[in-house]
């Protein structure tokens, strides 16, 4: 244990800092880091180097080279820089490389050197050129801040949603500030800059002079400044060699340290651990590294090579041409377990486990000592927590064995934390491997989340490892394996050296019917790569037509899209394609396409009936569908035209169409309607009133009601209305008029073709029993009983029924007999029925 703490360095009395090697770099750099533009992404991210950034020679061999490496020095990409002079490099939160050029254009590259997009920081930056730039991270995304040659600042807080902000001018600023940085306070990005002994804070509205509280006197210039990883703290390096540390709001001073070095440092970054009360700053010169904080003495390291500092959530990464190291504050759990002569529960439990492996009785003594103090649960938890903060697997295993050993003596210790830590460490050890090169710490891993880590593995095209992690952690398929396979498939379609058939088959064999995978998304990526045929083959595997059709339309494969939409049976989808085809094709081609698709043609006709009547007519004409064309003109005669001449003309066109369709009945009916319309107009002109659009029957009825009996009869003859129907019409109309005298004359004009029972029924309907009785006597024998019953003459109806010896009529009369008034009649019928039944 003493050897284990050999690389621990105390900073004051309350904290230790340690530096250990992450990787031995094997990237074969020929230049010193000082001769390159360098950018390293946080959370164990990649490293970008631009070699020879200052050279202006035009020959291709002298162009700068942009190289991207993993954190372990494994090459990921290399490309000649053929664009303009570059001022700054930086990584976005999505691990995209932002390259800021002198003309204010920012080029965005992927992890593998693939160009993504570019954007400009505005005309003012273009005119005044870029002096310096910073890439920073906020809760909204990644931002870019620019210092122009006019000594003005322009920034965008989120390059994903570019909104440029020109910061206020600093009064009296005639040269570049000695140092500046970006800060994020209250969800707003600010710029802090130093001009001589003065500090200015720029926000979107104003430039404010600020003064750090408790700053040592005699400061004439600020040489370097650094903001903590979480933007909560600020450090200022003065020309007097003092380092002031305080809150980023510049309202509170934490401490001040005199490093006795007045030379400006190359880099200054914060080194603090989440939830730790200790605050420390790491300062780097050419060959010296110093850790300073609230302590009289700092920690000094000698740098054998030119190095670069990368601030992290819980420490600082330091890489050079040969090594990559991590410097951080020793976590509390590790400190309590491993510091010399520690009697912490975790330390005793670790010793007990080691003695147990040696089969020594001391194990029992250590264990009893912990149990007597009631600190065994705390000891187990300390060992689990300390294991998470250890980088080397051997030490992780030792601490986890101790925790497992202690758990054996606890009845109700929840195993979740132990199991989860084992899983997390297995994942961390896998991604820390040299060939993977993502040296995440446990704290960074928890802050980053497993989903983001999987995204970063996918970004590095480490699909097998990502899938293994998903399966090991038993993540839901949609969030894990399915999502990764979809990314793999999207990468697969970019391999242009493989045939479309082979790529589609490989993707289908790997994905199958995996839930959560959309073949349409993969096909869209293939189409974006210029592989239209591959996209179509992939869409064959997409089970949802609603996903197939929009992409086929986008690819201008409208006829195939129409076939897919029809196969789906989704009429809305078919209508979508039809409207797209209508706008895309000329009218003739569109109609020819519809003729080959009966279902689509039928749906389009339905659409035209409500929206485009003229198009519907054209469809019928093209198909020589005279029957439907005739029906169309009939509807049009009622829907559009108000003038009688126009309506008759439309009906004549309809009649001609019906004749062509060999539909004699429809043609004759249409011609009759034309005659009726002309007659109705003439009646309106001569008699007044409303006749147009009435049926023949209603026209006859209206004429009778108007007293025009002769005209009604003439109309009935012209339109061949049968006598029975005419008698019914006249009977009903005269009864409605209550013209009983005319009705009687009409009944006597000749023998009624409908009989006289209807006269009885109509009179009774009008509640006129007197008139009804007149006609009851004239009703034929077969309907006599019914007529008498209608007028209420039950006795006579009984006599007639008995005379007819008709059992059904007797039963009908009997059903109308009521109480005492018809008692004798009922007895009479009963006797007659009995006699009939005997015979």
Q: Which of globular, elongated, flat, extended, rod-shaped describes the shape? A: elongated
**Rg:** 49 Å
Mean pLDDT: 85
Given helix and strand content, the structural type is alpha+beta
Biggest sheet, in brief?
A: 5 strands, antiparallel
Q: What are the segments in which pLDDT stays under 50 over at least 5 consecutive residues?
A: none
Q: How many E-type strands?
A: 29
* Tally of DSSP helical segments: 33
Distance between the termini: 131 Å
The amount of beta strand, in percent, is 15-25%
**Helix content percent band:** 40-55%
Strand order of the largest sheet: 1-2-29-28-27
Family: Belongs to the VPS16 family.
Organism: Neophocaena asiaeorientalis asiaeorientalis (Yangtze finless porpoise)
GO biological process, one term: intracellular protein transport
Domain Vps16 C-terminal: 517-835
Question: Would you give an account of this structure?
Answer:
The structure is a single chain. The strands form 7 sheets. The protein has a 5-stranded antiparallel beta sheet, with no helix packed on it. Among the domains are: 1-19 and 212-330, Lipocalin (Beta Barrel); 31-173 and 180-188, 7 Propeller (Methylamine Dehydrogenase, Chain H); 339-567, no CATH class. The chain has 839 residues and is of the alpha+beta class. The chain is 46% helix and 20% strand. Helix 10 packs antiparallel against helix 11 (481-492), helix 12 (500-511) runs parallel beside helix 14 and helix 22 (644-660) runs antiparallel to helix 23. Strand 21 (242-247) and strand 22 (253-258) form a beta hairpin. The longest helix has 24 residues, at 664-687. Residues 349-376 form a coiled coil.
């Amino acid at each position: 244990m003493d050897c284990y703490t050999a690389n621990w360095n105390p900073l004051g009395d309350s904290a230790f800092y340690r530096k250990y090697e992450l990787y031995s770099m094997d990237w074969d750099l020929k230049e010193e880091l000082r001769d390159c533009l360098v950018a390293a992404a946080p959370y164990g991210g990649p490293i970008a180097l631009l070699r020879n950034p200052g050279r202006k020679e035009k020959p291709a061999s002298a162009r700068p080279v942009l190289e991207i490496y993993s954190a372990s020095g494994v090459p990921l990409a290399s490309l000649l820089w053929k664009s303009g002079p570059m001022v700054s490099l930086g990584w976005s939160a999505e691990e995209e490389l932002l390259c800021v050029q002198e003309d204010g254009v920012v080029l965005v590259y992927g992890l593998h050197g693939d160009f993504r997009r570019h954007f400009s920081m505005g005309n003012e930056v273009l005119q005044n050129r870029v002096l310096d730039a910073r890439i920073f991270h906020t809760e909204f995304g990644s931002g870019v801040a620019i210092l122009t040659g006019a000594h003005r600042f322009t920034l965008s807080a989120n390059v994903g949603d570019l909104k440029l902000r020109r910061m206020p001018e600093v009064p009296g600023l005639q040269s570049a500030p000695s140092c500046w940085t970006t800060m994020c306070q209250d969800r707003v990005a600010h710029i802090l800059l130093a001009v001589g002994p003065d500090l200015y804070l720029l926000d979107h509205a104003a430039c404010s002079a600020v003064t750090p509280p408790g700053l040592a006197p005699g400061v004439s210039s600020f040489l370097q400044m650094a903001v903590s990883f979480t933007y909560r703290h600020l450090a200022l390096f003065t020309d007097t060699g003092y380092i002031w540390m305080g809150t980023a709001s510049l309202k509170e001073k934490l401490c001040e340290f005199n490093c006795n070095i007045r030379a400006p440092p190359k880099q200054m970054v914060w080194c603090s651990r989440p939830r730790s009360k200790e605050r420390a700053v790491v300062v780097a010169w050419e060959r010296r590294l110093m850790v300073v904080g609230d302590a009289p003495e700092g920690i000094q390291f000698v740098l054998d090579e030119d190095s670069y500092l990368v601030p992290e959530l819980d420490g600082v990464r330091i890489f050079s041409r040969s090594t990559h190291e991590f410097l951080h504050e020793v976590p509390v759990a590790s400190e309590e377990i491993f510091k010399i002569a520690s009697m912490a529960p975790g330390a005793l439990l670790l010793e007990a486990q080691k003695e147990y492996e040696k089969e020594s009785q001391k194990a029992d003594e250590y264990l009893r000592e912990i149990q007597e103090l009631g600190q065994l649960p705390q000891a187990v938890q300390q060992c689990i927590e300390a294991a998470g903060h250890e980088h080397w697997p051997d030490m992780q295993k030792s601490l986890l064995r101790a925790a497992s050993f202690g758990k054996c003596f606890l009845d109700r210790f929840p195993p979740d934390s132990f199991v989860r830590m084992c899983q997390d460490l297995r994942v961390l050890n896998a991604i820390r491997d040299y060939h993977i090169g993502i040296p995440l710490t446990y704290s960074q891993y928890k802050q980053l989340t497993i989903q983001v880590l999987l995204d970063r593995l996918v970004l590095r095209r480490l699909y097998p490892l990502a899938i293994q992690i998903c399966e090991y952690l038993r993540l839901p398929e949609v969030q894990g394996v399915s999502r990764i396979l979809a990314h793999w498939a999207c990468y697969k379609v970019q391999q242009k050296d493989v045939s479309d058939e082979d790529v589609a088959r490989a993707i289908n064999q790997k994905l199958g019917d995996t839930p959560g995978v959309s073949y349409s998304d993969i096909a869209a990526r293939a189409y974006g790569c210029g592989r239209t045929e591959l996209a179509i083959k992939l869409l064959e595997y997409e089970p949802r037509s609603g996903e197939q059709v929009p992409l086929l339309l986008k690819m201008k494969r409208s006829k195939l899209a129409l076939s897919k939409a029809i196969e789906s049976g989704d009429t809305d989808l078919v209508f979508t394609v039809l409207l797209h085809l209508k706008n895309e094709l000329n009218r003739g081609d569109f109609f020819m396409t519809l003729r080959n698709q009966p279902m689509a043609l039928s749906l389009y006709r339905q659409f035209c009936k409500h929206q485009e009547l003229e198009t519907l007519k054209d469809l019928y004409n093209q198909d020589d569908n005279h029957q439907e064309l005739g029906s169309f003109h009939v509807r049009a005669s009622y829907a559009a035209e108000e003038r009688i001449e126009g309506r008759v003309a439309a009906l004549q066109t309809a009649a001609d169409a019906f004749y062509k369709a060999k539909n004699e009945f429809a043609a004759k009916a249409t011609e009759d309607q034309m005659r009726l319309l002309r007659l109705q107009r003439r009646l309106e002109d001569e008699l007044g009133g409303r006749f147009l659009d009435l049926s023949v029957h209603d026209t006859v009825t209206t004429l009778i009601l108007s007293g025009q009996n002769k005209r009604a009869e003439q109309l009935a003859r012209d339109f061949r209305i049968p006598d029975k129907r005419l008698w019914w019409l006249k009977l009903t109309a005269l009864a409605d008029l209550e013209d009983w005298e005319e009705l009687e004359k009409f009944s006597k004009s000749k023998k009624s073709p409908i009989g006289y029972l209807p006269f009885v029924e109509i009179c009774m309907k009008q509640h006129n029993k007197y008139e009804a009785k007149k006609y009851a006597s004239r009703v034929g024998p077969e309907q006599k009983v019914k007529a008498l019953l209608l007028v209420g003459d039950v006795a006579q109806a009984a006599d007639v029924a008995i005379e007819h010896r008709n059992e059904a009529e007797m039963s009908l009369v009997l059903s109308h007999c009521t109480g005492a008034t018809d008692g004798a009649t009922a007895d009479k019928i009963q006797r007659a029925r009995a006699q009939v039944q005997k015979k």
